[in-house]
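Entry 14. Ran structure prediction on the chain below.
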Amino acid sequence: MKTAVRILFRTLFLSCVCIATKLICATAPVHKYEAVKLTALCNGAEFTASGRTVLDMGWKRYINRTENDKPDEKALPAVSEGQAFIVSASKSEHFTSPPKSYTEDTLLSAMERAGNDEYDEEAEKKGLGTPATRAATIEALVKNGYVERDGKKLRSTDK
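Output, C-alpha cells:
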C-alpha cells in the first residue's frame, strides 16, 4: 500500500512541476533571436545558408532540453556585403547499400512495435494486428506472392 501511495504522490508532484513550469514559461519574457539568411554567388551559382543568433533566451531558459529535441539553428559567422571568400571543393563518389532484408522474427518484431509512439503506454492493443494474427499475416503475404522466402530472409516481389 505504501508503494502505491508513493507512486501517487510522485505522479502528483511531477504533475504540479509540469503545470508550474508551463505557467512560468507563459509569463516569462519572449525568446528573442536574430535570423540571418546569407546568399553567395560563385561562378554564377547561387548558394544560401541560414542561421540564428539567440539574443535573449527568454522562456526557453526554463525548459529542460533532451537529446531528442531538435537543436537550434547554428549561428553564421560574421560576414559583410561584398566580402570575398576562398573556398575549396571536392567531388567524391559514394555508394549506398539497401537496408537489410527482414527475417520472420524481425518482421514480427517490427509489426509489434509499429505505431507504438501513437498509443498510450497503458493501451491494450499496440502494433499491427494481434500477436495471434501477425504470423498468419506473413504467411498470407507469402501465399499470395507478395513476399518470398530466401533462406531465413523475406524478400518482396514485384507483384
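The radius of gyration is 27 Å. Will compare against last week's run tomorrow.
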